[in-house]
## 1
Amino acid sequence: MSLDLNSPFARDIAHHIHPQTNLRLHETEGPLLIDRGEGCSVIDSEGNRLIEGMAGMWCASLGFSEQRLVDAATRQLQRLPYMQTFAHRSTDPIIELATQLTAMAPGPRPGETMAKALFACSGSEANDTAMKLVWYYHHSIGKPEKRKLIARRRGYHGTTIAAASLTGLPNMHQDFNLPLAGVLHVTCPHYYREGRPGESEAQFTDRLVAELEALILNEGPDTIGAFIAEPVMGTGGVVVPPEDYFPRVQEVLRKYDILVIADEVICGFGRTGEVWGSDTFGIRPDMLTCAKALSAAYFPISATLVSQAVYEAMRAESDKLGNFSHGFTYGGHPVGAAVALETLAIYRERDIVGHVRRVGPRLQAGLRALADHPLVGEARGIGLMGALELVQDKVTRASFPPARKVPGYLAGRIQKRGVILRGRDDSLLFSPPLTISEAEIDTVLDAVAAGLDETLDWVRGH
Ligand SMILES: Cc1ncc(COP(=O)(O)O)c(C=O)c1O
């Protein structure tokens, strides 16, 4: 069959570079063309209906056809389609959004909320901003040498230069000359993979806490500015930390005046069954970044929220220098703000967090039930995020060689059954829209069970 060079399929191959894609493979595979959305599903160009088990990229929290968000965007586009927030400019929607977000987000001490919000367009920009604010803050308080940041291996914080440096996934660094100097990575709190033989989970946590403190002392506490973490690592494999990991880690950080940044880009707005992953895991951050479900992904918008203490240092520094010289043309976009406000209203009115608490256990129980499958080493997750870790040997926990791309093959089989999931590294990842029904969860799980059996046949046949 010859390819129509004018078709969207051919023109995508000819002109479009796909992020996080093998570019050579794309020239033969071509794109999966998605045409439209309906509830938790999308429909491809051939009319196939697929449940979006990843909510796009962990973000389309209200599914793909929420008319209220379309209307909110339309109203704002008609009234005022753009205004910047540089040099004292503001608009009603962004003021209201800053008010609501700061009131909702946990601050550094119990009962305290965040003080101020600074807006950008993506999670990466929110984290880049947080990194700059760590430096700005420490200049302001007279400790400019406190400039190193500690992140975790397998953490994901984005792909701009700073955010990719914070990210602890080697393929995000390789041949991009990253990470930047001054970013340190500590062990990922994944007991299944990182725990040592005979080590209990409590001993594992002790070891990670000791490792962190040793690193701080070795580098010099006066050189460490901040620690950044996702409450649950998403892209790195939906890694749910041991229960007291964050409170223990924070104790160490506070001891050495190291700021805590919670990257809530995935966890924020209900994913873990609380509004914030920080609530679920006892994190009391000095800064909090959020994006994705902030606007249900209907408009690119992100925020870096800061505590009163961080804000006061920023205020003093901007006064000293004459200006707070940071910001993005589209940061605080009024249309994004209007969409985010409507999203937050829907979360409240439909009790979306309560829904996650009600249906999340169905997903988690279904995943745990699949742990008996010969290919599954570990089933894990919380709320409406989860992962199945694939192994070639359940006893030794040996992974498949990456070149075999077993998780990718499995995701392909599941997609043939009408469900989109993501295979990454050794895991199959789950992050459906927060509105998913129990019946849809069952459909997802059935497709996964059948896909696992097909993949087992394929693995054994090779
Ligand atoms: C936890 C986390 N932080 C930051 C980012 C980066 O967000 P963006 O892709 O909007 O730059 C992501 C994206 O997946 C993420 O999962």
## 2
Amino acid sequence: MTAEVPSFIQARDEADPIRMFRQRFSLPPGIVYLDGNSLGALPTATAPRLDELVRQEWGVGLIRSWNSHDWIGASRRVGDKIATLVGARAGEVVVADSTSVNIFKLLMAAIAARPGRKIILSETDNFPTDLYVAQGIAALLPQQTVRAVDPGKVLEAIDKDVAVILLTHVHYKTGQKYDMARITKRAHECGALIIWDLSHSTGAVDVDLGAVDADMAVGCGYKYLNGGPGAPAFVYVAKRLQGELKSPITGWFGHAAPFEFAGNFQPATDINRFLSGTPPVLALAGLEIGVALLAEAPRKLLFQKSQELCSLFIERIDKTCQGYGLEVVTPRDPQERGSHVSLRHPEGYPIIRALIARGVIGDFRAPDILRFGIAPLYLSFADIWRAADALRDVLVTRQWDTAEFKARAPVT
Ligand SMILES: Cc1ncc(COP(=O)(O)O)c(C=O)c1O
């Protein structure tokens, strides 16, 4: 990788009050990792913890570890830690299933709680799984319709026909952030419920579900939470709604007393009703490490650093990459964006491949978006400087213009 990092950038890193967290991650040397919004980095504590869990708790403790090592409490314990990152209270978040499955559970619960209302409202460019699950529900329940509107037209599309609104807080492609307080307020004025997908927010962006009186939320465990590939997701349901909303997946872990093995389903009275089956203990242990690490960092500093890193990246692109057909898609105003920076270029795919070959790992979202995730816990100002320099170099030298970089890999 090129790049002399100037002393004023080094000074910013030295003054960064959360810089020491980087040492708690096992990042390969020579890599600038800007894809933590797709798959978070590996905390150094994860491998020893999983080793201990497998060899001791499973190998030696066997089934006794459900009690002796509180495997049974992990979904709630990790949920309570995630709650501290999103402004929720203890008992409002539980770890379960995947984000897609959790969206299904919450949409179905919301529709049942708003009888007579026909609309699931979302936006046309929402993350595909959110739209697909909503479409699947419309196919299951013929009285329901999906109303998908332009991202900027959501507020005016909320009316008394809407049962539930499903939005991704930080847009997965553009990085644009919705005004959660304003949209939630409007939803409530119209009597609708709202589900926020926090996949691109949790752990990197200031979210205060309690302050905006949010109803429901979901989010991924493997992005900024650093839970590892395929880590389980989380569900948030406000305490005031927990008695009313019912999961459509009435599995035994959602029962009020799973180990009584009663013949009839009786939902738990609390957030546990959104559990379905046996929790993935190994994956939960990985997620717990990632979440605990984030929870150690002061929230304000974490979110402020994310904004500063994003601003530096955009500034450097504006200054050094002009004239090569690159467009900054993410809002320049930190209040209007999340924690990734997206750039548009017609040759976005080979450009990102060329960058990855140089050790700067971002990703590509079709048709033309280069995406750079900014994880404040392990990235430095020097990383951002180097990444922008490498991008400039790839553009100036047209390093991307080869058959090798143009050939598509299965995962982008
Ligand atoms: C906004 C959003 N929702 C959901 C998902 C993925 O959901 P799942 O974990 O069920 O694959 C992603 C993955 O990138 C996402 O960006």
